[in-house]
Write the structure tokens for this entry.
Amino acid sequence: MSKFVDRPRYTCTLGGALATLRAIPRAIPIIHASAGCGHNLHNAINPGGGYLGGGYCGGLSLPSSNVTERDIVFGGENRLREQIKTTLEVMDGDIYLVLTGCMVEMIGDDLDAVVSEFSDYDKPVLPVHTPSFRGNSFTGYELVLSSLIRKYVKKQSKIPGNVNILGIVPAQDPFWQGNLKEIKRLLEKLGLKVNTLFGEGEGLESIRNAGSASLNIVVSDTYGITAARTFEEVHGIPYITTGLPIGAEATGNFLRAVSDALSIDKTLTEFVIAQEELIYYSYLERLADIYNDIDLQRYAVVVADANYAPALSKFLSDELGWLPELVVITDLLEESQKYILLERFKNYQSGLTPVVKFDTDASSIKKYLAEIRPPNRNQRYYDSFSPAVILGSVYERDIAGEFGFPLLTVSFPVTNRVVLNRSYVGTNGALSLAEDLLGLLVAGR
Amino acid sequence: MNYLEAISAPARENRLRANIAFGGTCGDIKGCLKKGCFSGNGCLNLAGRRFSQTQGCQFTLSLAILNTLRNAVVIMHSPIGCGTCTISNVGVNKTFKQLRDPNSEGIIWLSTNLDEADVISGGERKLREAVLFADKEFRPETIIVANGCVPSLIGDDIDSIISDLQNQTAATIVPIHCEGFKTKVMATAYDAVYHGILKKLVKKPERQRYLVNDDVEALKESYKIGRNVNVFNVGSMSRADELELKRLLNALGLNVTFIPCYAEPEDFQYSLESSLNISICGTHDDYFLEHIKEKYDIPFIIDTMPIGRKNTDRWLLKIAAHFGLENEARKLIETENAELDKCLESFRETLKGKRAFISGGEVRILATAEILQDLGMKLVGFKAHHFDEFIEPVFDALENVDDVVFDVATNQPFEQANLLKRIKADILITHTGGNNILAKIGLPILPLFGPAYNYLGYSGVFEVARRLNRVIRNGQFNKQLSLHTKLPYKEEWYKKDPFTYIVEQDAV
């Protein structure tokens, strides 16, 4: 039984679907919903994703049936039929996906029947049921992908060495493009042909040809798994889940996991890992002076989604040598998902065990902070939780300001920075993360 | 006007016969006004489009006011997505609130997160939990419950739930019925918000009274009230705009209170101790002002928007006339104009003859156009979100616009993209949102409004001129974008009449 959410860090199913389609060049969504849905969601996704922008067909250019009371009373199918027909006249796309909002699903408009009338059109027109009450952005990502996997991805024979990447949700991960690029770079070093489905160098053809993969790599314990299972069911492609790799150690483990699953020569894998570590530490070594000269070790609070939270916490603890004492995972999760995530916080090399909370509410963070470190009751000697840094979303700005902790925004919504091709995963991403975190600390020097 | 017995405000297509789809010229529009096409018999008010793009709804626009209220928590009673557009002003909003009160909190909002089970069994439980949590956790003065489409369709009796909860909370709970599917005219949002405010927040303030009647104090009080005016701000105004209007009205000896945006809930009570309500935009305020007139007998002025010299002159004179201060106002206007006019000269040199296309709210685009004519620029096109009777007084300040294209469209950037293939423009003045498309046309853009910039009053004219001059000096960013990106419309679309998809629908 779900509850209300204090300042949600995701939009709805339709929002996730729109953000996912935003990542596919020349894909045209057709929204069958009230007039405000697309507009509202664009105004969440664009700023929340570090100013993602509307893309080719985004923002206020999204075709939408804009149903009103009359359509809700008499049914919206005629309006939808008209909107699809005219969209095909006006909008220049390579694939058209018809998405639904709450109202038309509640009144029972027959989406599939109306869309099937357009099966003769020379570009594919596909239906995806995405009413908001069915889940959040992450659900939207899974639904759009599953729909494409079932209806659009070509059935073809597997090519050894071809892999797809799943689990990084566009916009919901503001660094999705940079992150996918870095994952691709790393895996290509193992000799793989990597299809990230979205992002640099990918397009609709990448999705069409995703059926040739011999393995799906889900870089998440939580997201992309439904899509991976659909791939398995429809195209017979197995999958592994790895979690998001941040830092040299996590990258090494990630490469080893992929290499094991594909039986890649271990010598090659270890050679690649050694090479990455060499480069990584040639940069990180530069911090030896300042880190130790002025004591740049910090307590840390991580407030993030199920992908970032465990990965950031582990990186902070085991590579940056910080003390991530409190981790709040802000997604709506099942008990079984929480159980898997909790495993990620065990066996840190530092010996630390962060306090991990699952909580969707922005106002809860302060309470947990008071729990892990009882407040100063005017005692003369008080072991305070400082100096500390918060890694979170823009919602954590208030608490950061109140306690005087620097804040790095990494998790949706990120409205206080512009994100283009920056990455926080792999070895290159971890270097950017170190730059940004320590950059906060030397900003006044 | 009295709609307060009803649960929610009526849709503007019914109350004002407003139109959202029309293509023609300013001359056509004026003709329509004369014939009563829009306000009287409403012959164009059911027009729509066979092809449409997403356009915003009364829920999203309601938040433009609701999210500014200080000391309030907003509850989005809906599935998780509704109202997430709040993310777009989560940061700036706090800053703007703090310009009014340095201790203000940022926006706090909750979503009742209605899911599939709630759609079947009703959202009452979650709404109750959210309201009680908000009251206990944040101790706000007001809890606003804005409901989306879903609770309306599943039949949640929100007003009853709220009356029941009111006994359990310290905060005043204000229901705002702003479900998006109820209206085609996004601006119905203003009525929806005012409807809730009128019902729950507007009441005579409780004042301590003197034990003994003191004539002098009574005179002082009535003197004070006789010079108090409320100016109705809009979410797109800046603090600098407010300070400019305040400066001008102070010069006439009037005390100014700004509501509704960035107001404290209690301000609506004190606003009744006032002798005149002044709108800067009829589209925004008529519902509230008419109700206050009827219930509390406070007169109001709805006329033009004080953007541009002529409009500001006219706005000031209307107010001055109410207080018998026309001579004083004329002096003020003369001084202000003389100084400003001189300072615009250098901008006129660079801007003269530049062709501008303006899009946004009906009143604001026409008011802003006056500044452009003042600077010697040429108006080549308008696109208005919607169209109703409140546009009429704003035409007066413009010269020779009868042949200028006038498109009525709530967003719908495809129509403007087509128009801009036919109409040569040098600069676009645009509402936020559509710039994803318009920037790629390659022209420099000045935002039509910005809550961090001054547009209103005399200082606003100078600021707009100064910024236009800057924007037009280097348009490389959008120009380069246009060379390297493509708009999502087919070539055939540009060959069609831009108003092809507008249809006059039959009434039901």
